[in-house]
Amino acid sequence: MTKNLKPKSLLVASAMAAALTLSAVPAVQAKGKAEKCYGIVKAGQNDCATATTSCAGTATKDGQSDSWIYVPKGTCAKIIGSSLKSGK
């Protein structure tokens, strides 16, 4: 049986998947195999400045289109609601 998920549930599930990949990101980032993934960050969990904030951890809302986190290359395209470009 297939369940239909609401868009908000899909966003939360996608963000959870991204969070699970974060533990591997520092090593991957050091080797240049990471990419910035926009629009999936929980409030206060962004990796760096956004168009509206000046430093990491200052995103003001979940799914903010200009906030990003590093994920292993190729991962961002698999996350619903994500983008490789800033929404602002």
Name a few traits of the molecule.
single chain; 88 residues; alpha+beta; two-stranded antiparallel ribbon; 24% helix; globular
Radius of gyration computed on alpha carbons: 13 Å
- Strand order across the biggest sheet? 1-2
Share of helix, binned: 10-25%
The class by helix and strand makeup works out as: alpha+beta
Distance between the termini: 39 Å
Write the element-wise H/E pattern from the N-terminal end onward. HHEE
Number of strands: 2
Residue share in β-strands: 5-15%
pLDDT averaged over residues: 77
Q: Output the number of helix runs.
A: 2
The low-confidence runs, each spanning 5 or more residues with pLDDT under 50, are: none
Shape: globular
What's the main sheet like? 2 strands, antiparallel
Summary, kept brief:
It contains two helices and two strands. With 88 residues, it is of the alpha+beta class. Strands 1-2 form a two-stranded antiparallel ribbon.
Describe what this molecule looks like in 3D:
With 88 residues, this protein is an alpha+beta fold. The chain contains 2 helices and 2 strands; from the N terminus they run ααββ. The chain has a two-stranded antiparallel ribbon. The longest helix is centred in the N-terminal third of the chain and has 15 residues, at 7-21. The protein is globular, with a radius of gyration of 13 Å. The model has no long low-confidence stretch (mean pLDDT 77).
List the helices and strands and how they pair.
Elements: H1 7-21, H2 25-30, E1 34-38, E2 68-72
Antiparallel strand pairs: 1-2
